[in-house]
């Protein structure tokens, strides 16, 4: 199985999350061919140079080869590169496993939070994700809230 891990890769937090996800997936599924863009020094060593076409071509080639896309949706907004990768990958009608671990998902049934939002729109204690991106994921995949669930979903697809 070939998989592509889509997430931001410019902050230490993103790079560490990517490393952790990759370690867990590779440990659970020996032999998986997991592409992690930050590991591709040819286009992502920022001391070097790769233009936009080199980056787009390298990543599109890996997306086209992949059986599944693993997309991290965390952050202030979905990373623009991740959103583009989700859109491009969705054209292949292959599964997408998205990780959305934001703790603001908790308490969705808390009536106090709902009442506060109704009374004052600035009291939004929930989180928004672009509904087009979410819909594209749901057409061909799932959204989970932990790395363990990501691994479980990839294991199911690998059977």
Automatic annotation (TrEMBL):
Keywords: Transferase. One of its GO terms (biological process) is deoxyribonucleoside monophosphate catabolic process. The keyword Iron-sulfur does not apply. It comes from the Bacteria. Gene3D superfamilies: 3.40.50.450. One of its GO terms (molecular function) is transferase activity. SUPFAM superfamilies: N-(deoxy)ribosyltransferase-like (SSF52309). It holds the Pfam family Nuc_deoxyrib_tr. This is Nucleoside 2-deoxyribosyltransferase.
